[in-house]
Structure prediction request, 424 residues.
Amino acid sequence: MASERRSSRISGFYRKAMEERVRLVADYAGLTEEEVALLGSGGGLSLEAADRMIENVLGTMAYPFSVAVNFRINGRDYLVPMVLEEPSVVAAASNMARLMREGKGIRVSSSDPVMIGQIQVLDVPDIEAAKRALTEAKPRLLELADQQDPVLVRFGGGARDLELRVIDSEVGPMLIVHLLVDCRDAMGANAVNTMCEALAPTVEELTGGRVLLRIISNLADHRLVRAETVVRKEALGGEQAVDDIVAAWAFADADPYRAATHNKGIMNGVIAVALATAQDHRALEAGAHAYAARDGRYRALSRWSKNEDGDLVGVLEMPMAVGLVGGATRTHPMARLALKIMGVSTARELAEVMAAVGLAQNLGALRALAQEGIQHGHMRLHARNLVVMAGAEGDLIDRAVEALVESGEIRFDKAQEIVKRLKG
Prediction:
């Protein structure tokens, strides 16, 4: 867990030199000299390790590894590693976390880490009789599933229940068996798929049908996380600012064209943490967007409203299938380092931190859109990147950024011209 003796509230963190940022994070997380060196290694993944992870490897590709500050989640402070290439995301998450940390901060809860395995049964002669047979055999089927992963069972996980669904399709009706599995600290794909494979022959015998697919579902709607916060109206610029943010959210909730971009903003935060910790970010994206359309219409994943005091209330609920064991999370040295910096001890805690980051990132985007337009913050950070690329260093960076923004021409050639002039 994150240290209770240290605060994630670090004023002006982005203004500090990289060496100072590394020192602060190293002190906060208790990093070793080897771990500090890993931060400067350009990605931390050797070609040999990469070649073992996937096929046809030619090299590796690095993305910026950053840290968001100021987060207080369920009364604990967190520094949150984020990996992405888009300017303003880390800054927005850190800034909104600063506003959210007052009062109770961000409050997060989550359900048990239950994943769904699907077994597709075709050509069932009598679907009602098949459902009765499966229901009667449930204890035997769950026991058979648990036999496939005794380690998971030993750690408190394992098969929990069966759900039966009949769906109509282009090829006729089919019976779908859902196997619910508590995956504990694993994402669960391997365990769930193995269990479904093992159950297939018995399911065929009980139903008289033919099993085709046996596969995990990435719509993990039994594995939900919920983040909530209250932000004082004074911190946002007054009650009108609160009203405008609520109206901006209402647009997203009513219109799928806007909702797609609204939810993408949430996932900017979630996926950046997922990449830092080597999670299956494709599964997270698929599950989130499917959940957003669960009532037949694609809507906003979050909800923003105004309470009786005029303050802003935010809630984000979404599936969050993440793991601390298995896969690249254990094999990638930077992922292990990210988890140490964050200080999480369970997959459930990681999911809760990721939801908190998603909620903070969502507020950052809504506030920017409602108050100054999304390009204002983007362009200032983009300008900073451009002047650094053009050769600005130290105190010259801020002066060059101001000059570039004032010029209204946020381009690399203009940045080169300004840096050259300021250097004399």
Q: What stands out?
A: The longest strand covers residues 158-167. The mean pLDDT is 94. The beta strands are 65-73, 76-83, 107-110, 114-122, 158-167, 174-182, 210-217, 224-231, 302-306, 312-319. The longest helix spans residues 347-371.
